[in-house]
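It is worth pausing here to work through a concrete case rather than discussing structure prediction in the abstract. The textbook approach is simple: state the sequence, then state the predicted structure, then interpret. We follow exactly that order.
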Amino acid sequence: MATRSKAEKRAAGRKREGKVGPKAQGVADVVPTDVKHADLDTREGVTVTSEAAPKQAGEDAVMPEPTPTLTLDSQPAHADDVHDAVVADLAESAQRQDDHPKPPFTLAVDIGGTGIKCLLLDADGKPSGKRQRQETPRPATPDAVLQVIKGLIPDTAFDRVSVGFPGVVVGGVIHSAPNLDPSFAGFDLQSALSHLTEKPVRVLNDAGLQGLGAIAGSGTEVVITLGTGMGFAIYVEGRYVPNVELAHHPLSKRRTYEENVGNRARKKFGNRKWSKRVKAALLQIQKTFNPQRIYVGGGNAAKLSAKLPDGVVIIDNIAGLLGGIALWR
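Step two, the predicted structure:
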C-alpha cells in the first residue's frame, strides 16, 4: 500500500474536521444559511431565492452550494410580461418631478373620447413633471378641444408637440373622428395646435402613437386600445402602417369590432361577458395578422377579467403619452 505524504495526511485531517481550503470554498461557506438573495431578477413580481439545505444532526460534511429557486410574488397574466413592468415603472416616474431632464422637451398630448391628457417628456422620452388630465368636452368640437389643451399646457418651456388623436389622420388633417364631434372631419389639427403653442407639431392616430411607446420593433406587432371605442395599429419591423381602421370592420353578426368591444358594449353586457368578447376579437386578430405580439392598452384594458391568449400583453395607458417622443426620432 502506498505511503501518503505529510501534505496528504494534513489534507485528509482537514476534510474530516469539515474544513476546506480557499479554492474549494463555495457560496454556502461565506453566506449565512438564513439569508435569501432577493431581487436578482429585474422582472416585476419575480424573485430569485437561494436557500442552503439544513444539516442533519451530527453531520460534519461541508454545506453544499445553494440551488437557486424561482418564486413568483404575483401572478402575471403572461410569462413574458417583462415589458409591462417597464411601462409601469415609467408610469410611476411620470408622477414625479425629474431631477435631471434633458432638452429638447416634447409636450405629449393624448386626445381621447373621455379624457385629454398632457405630459412633458425630455430628450430621452422620460417624463418631466406630472401628467395633466381633463375631461373631454361635450360636444367635442375642435374649438372646445383646443381650449382644453390650452388649459393643460404647462408653464415649463417646451420645444415641440406630439399629439395622439382617436381617428384617421393624414398630414395632420383629421379625416374621421368617430367618438368626437363630426365637425373634426377636414380640420387641420396640426396647424391649429402649432398656431396655439407657437411650436412645431406632429399628429398621429392615438393607437399608433401608443404603440410607439410599447412595441419591441421586431416582426409584425399589433396594438389595440380599449376605451370609448377601439383603436388599432399595426407595425412591421418597428414601422407604423398608418390608418388601418380595423375597429370599423365587421367581426360577428354584422357587428364591427368596436361594437363588440367598445365601452358601450362593456356597459351593456358587464365586464365578464365583455372580456370574453375582447378575447374572441384578439383570437381573430391573431388569425388575420399572425403578429408576434399584441399589446392591449387604453383605459378599459385594466377591466379585462378573462385569461388572454398567449402573445397578448397588457400595457399601461401612460404609453399613449410616452410614445410622443418617437414622432421626433
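Step three, interpretation. Residues 216-322 form a domain with the Nucleotidyltransferase; domain 5 fold (CATH 3.30.420.40). The first helix runs from residue 6 to 16.
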